[in-house]
């Protein structure tokens, strides 16, 4: 039996949504469903929850768990299609709260056949949506050594990116007589290529993160969805985002700050704050994991939660500013 999964910041995140009983809410990353269940506990009979996930397995879990709840609609799609999904349902600008839980889920990491983790041998897949796209093995086979090096450096912040990229591409040559790439084989290749190790961290951690991000276009998905989320929110609607590494959080932090700052007037102009037309108001300070959060779920160590609220006003101006 697998240990009970405790979603990171579950109560804090749902509290931050500030939802009422009859609100429309979007859980854009269903995962294991912990946040969705907590949201539904706050909604009344007149409330509505859209559940979105690009992972077929997550969607199947959602259908099993929520099939008899008339308040829920379950959608298999990447969250970068958020604007289209809301528009098709005539819900754009009407959402009271949106929750995003970025990164890989515990269910994905704990299933060796998905290929996300080096802790158990499995096929080198890493796709969040197994119904489409290249596997990690296929991606590694077609990228150049320089492209792989850039991905390891940019997405994994790996200082030995060049050594690792060279070792992987060499091992994939037909003349190398290397066994087919699995998660275990890849992890061993990386470990041998790294001359020094960080205490308490497997040497393949950054490389697996980088390859996963590249295969799933994760940062591009985040860049695309943030403006769409702003457009989809109702005035005073809340946007709650959980990030699990600095690259994700950096994108969220920059977007929140730009939207809260408003139009970029030259600093010497005598412009009052209201004239800057901000579209978001930051709510509280970013929340990082505490001792109890980490004790409940060790994967909470790097978690950061940011919250912002859409400012009411001219919807047309807001839409133009936020359009992707």
Characterize the structure shown.
The protein has 324 residues and is an alpha/beta fold. It has two domains: 10-107 and 218-322, Vaccinia Virus protein VP39 (Rossmann fold); 130-216, DNA polymerase, domain 1. The chain has 14 helices and eight strands. Strands 1, 2, 3, 4, 5, 6, 7 and 8 form an eight-stranded mixed β-sheet that branches. α2 (34-42) links the parallel β1 (24-27) and β2 (48-53). Residues 314-324 have low confidence and may be disordered.
Please tag this protein with its features.
2 domains; Rossmann fold; about 325 residues; DNA polymerase, domain 1; 14 helices
Structural class: alpha/beta
Please provide the count of β strands: 8
Beta percentage is 5-15%
Helix amount, in percent?
A: 40-55%
By CATH, the architecture of the largest domain is named 3-Layer(aba) Sandwich
Corresponding CATH superfamily of the largest domain? Vaccinia Virus protein VP39
Overview in brief:
The chain is 42% helix and 14% strand.
Indicate the topology.
Layout: H1 10-17, E1 24-27, H2 34-42, E2 48-53, H3 56-66, E3 72-76, H4 82-88, E4 95-101, H5 106-109, H6 136-142, H7 145-156, H8 161-171, H9 183-193, H10 205-216, H11 218-232, E5 233-243, H12 246-261, E6 280-282, E7 287-288, H13 291-296, E8 304-310, H14 315-322
Parallel strand pairs: 1-2, 1-4, 2-3, 4-5
Antiparallel strand pairs: 5-8, 6-8, 7-8
Helix pairs in contact: 1-2, 7-8, 7-10, 8-9, 11-12, 11-14
